[in-house]
Every structure is written in structure tokens, then in C-alpha cells.
Amino acid sequence: MNEHELSSRLHVAASSVTARPDIAEIELGAGRARSRRRLATGVIAGMLIAGAGGAGFGLGRSVDNEGEIAGSASQESIATDLTTPSTGSASTTTIAQSPLDTVVTVDVPVTTIAELVDMTDKQIAPMDAAATPPSYYGVSGPMVLTYERELDNGLRLRVLRGQNWDNMQGWPEGQWRPAAFCFGTAEMRITIDGKVDGADVVDVTGSQFYDDMYGEVEIQTVETGWADDHPMRILTVQAIPGITEVTVVWADGLTDTTTVIDGLAVLVVDGSGAWQTEYTLDVTDVSGTHSVDASPDDRYNDPEWRAACQEPPPELPAAGEQPADVAAATAEIETNFALLWDRDVAQDDKFDVLDDWTGVNQAVDAVYAGGYAETAETASHHIDELVFVSPTEAWFRYSIVTDVSNFYDRYGTAALTDVGWQLPRALICQDLSLAGGNCEPFADGIYPPSWIERYGPQKPGECVVFEDGTKGCVGEEYAGD
User: Fold this and answer.
1) Model's pTM, two decimal places?
2) Which residue from 184, 258, 246, 216 is spatially nearest to 28, judged by alpha carbons?
3) Residue 273 CB: number of other CB atoms within 10 A?
4) What is the mean pLDDT of residues 214-224?
């Protein structure tokens, strides 16, 4: 089964089954899936221009420690093993009791982070006084303590690295494959613990390591601290050799500076809004301090990154007999395409641009009365490739650029009629639906045959035949011959 067949089967299954993945599986797979999902921008179900958000998965005060984790023997001791009580030697710790002036001597087992503890298959389980804390993540293999930082407010931040993923699994040999820097390599688990103003803070969140980086830094934004009502913005920064220090300055004035240790630094400030607040990032090396691109999402708009990390889009249909004046026909289609989205031009002045206006104005009104109105105002449409399959029919691939997110590899058609080159109603309807403007009656999206071959059926009742001879259809049950 090739990757496109698998995608088709998943799409068919998704039309009738609602998946409920385990949260650990989501985190561990998110890094690999994020870039992969961008390959199918033409089947976006909702407006991606909405701001990203999220927070760390809080453990609250129910978690006492992380257990033994591999690292330097000079790191701070940890009190218990994740699986069995420690069999290490005991030390004597003196604890002052209050309000009594009694001093009680307690024997405490001593362990150090001197070896790996395999956390595979640890599951959430009820805890009692005799139990050791379970793993709250389904971790595939041991994790290694990689980074530790004592924050000025007394909290301790630690970073653990999981086992490497196989990023090339699912990309057949001999076919197009993404570059190594396109995906994270392993889970990055970030833990926070300690006391602030006398109150416990214990939380954990996740990101991912990159063994190969695109550029001089790899920046990721996360939030944590919600479990104890102490939200924190976190930037993880992986840096190339030579960078020794990093500084973040958030738009609201919060800032943090720290040293890069073995190519990794974690910047932390109190507060929420990590994904909604802009920031600048300065790095220091032997040549001095300079600012770097502090917007990881900008790479998706970088042609070089996209060429390396996104599979080439499904091809337009093959060119056929050409119009008598190709340049004039192309110019008219491009003009009408731009005119369609020009809100300064009344519909009566561009009526012939679209073959059918049924329900379109109502959908436009819904967009500009909804939550995406401001972003929709910034949207611009660009035809990236166009072919004439006959003197009277054209196919093209286009993109939408907004102030928040861009949409690439979308498809449209144009037909030569008595009034000139017209665009189909489905074209504007498929784009309005991204921002909550749904045309009534519904209009199917526009996909070239190559898209269906790669990603499978998209419309209700549409079918695709898999390599084993069975047939899959969207929105209906079927039986293979």
C-alpha cells in the first residue's frame, strides 16, 4: 500500500468514524505530522488563519518527581525510581518541625541520575501512599536528561529527550522525500517544578528536538504552568555551534536571557499568550549580537523551505490545443480572477466574471460579519500556474496570502463563453468556506484528476480504486469486487 492509498483509506474512514487518539500519541506524533498535513492544503476543513493556541498538559501537585533519568552524576539527586523503591544507600536528613521545636531524623533513600530508566508502556494508574508516580505520557523508550536551568524565581526547568523517530517511514524509496530538517527528530519534554511565593508549581509540556536545522536556530513556542495557576511562556531555541547566548524580548516588554548549553537554550517568562504575542530574538556569537528570524511559521512561506519540505503539488491537466492569443487569454483570466475579489468593485460591474452568483453574496456577507473579517480584508489571491487544456478551457493553481496564514496549491478553472473568460461559482465558494462563508446550495471544491489520484476521493459519492482492487468512496459504504 503506497502513501496515497493510505491517505485515501483514511479519508474514507474519516467520513464515517470519529477518531479519539490518546493525548500522548498526539504529542509524540505532532512533530512528524505537522509538516505532512500541510501537503494537503486543498482539503482544509476550517480557516487556518485562526491563531494557534494551546498549553502544557498539567500534572498539578499529584506528581512528586520524574524518576531516574540518565544524565551527569553531578546533577541534583532524585528521591525515587519510577518502577520500584530505591535500593540505594540511605542518607540521614534532618527536618525541622513547626510549630514544635522537635527535630526528627528521617532515613531517605539516595539515588542519582546515573542511568536510564526505560519508561516504555508506563500508563496512568491510580496512586496510593505506597505507589511511585506513573508516567503520564506514553513514551517510546528511555528519556535522557539533556538540559537543566534554575530560574530566578526559584523554579527548576529540565528538558528530557526521547528516542529518535523514523521520519522517513511512509515515504517510499525512489519517490520524493522531504529534507531531514523538515521534521523534528525526537520528543522534547520540558518539566517545571519548585515553589513560587510558597506555593508548589509542578507542570510538564512538550516540544521536539531537531537533529538537522533550517537556518542558525530552531525556535519553538510552548506554554505551561496552568496546572498551578502560574502560566509561563517558553521558547525553546536550538542553535548552531558558536552561538553562546540568546535573548527574547516580547512585545509586551517581558524579556529573558540565558546561556546556550550544548546547542540548547530555554527562555522563560511569566504569563500567557505565547502564540499571540510577537517577540524578537537576539543571538550572540563571536562576532557579536544580532537578531534572527523569530517567526518559525515564516519558513512555510520560504520558497526554498517549501521546495525541500513539501511534496510537489498535484499537476495541472496536460496542455491541449491553445487559444489563438495565449497571452491575451491569460491576461484576461488573471484580471477577472483579481476582479472577483475586489470589494471596491460593485457586483454589477463584474457580473460576467462569475458564471453563477447564487448564494455568493450571502456567503461574502457571512465572512465579513464573522470572526475572520479583519484577516479576510488582508487576503490577496495569486495565480501561480496556468495551462490551457483547450482553446476554451483553462486550469490554474493559485495561492491565498493573508496577514496570519497563507494557503497554497489551490485549484481553479476558467471557461471561454459569449461574454469572455468566466470563473466557476465553485471557485469563490471554496475560498469563502475557509472563513466561514458557506454558499447555499453547497458547491464542491475544485480538484484536478491528479489530486484525486494522490489523495483519494473528495466529494460525497466519489470513489477511488486501490492497488488491491478494492474500491473506496466518500460518504457511502462499499464492498470490493
Assistant:
1) 0.55
2) 184
3) 15
4) 91
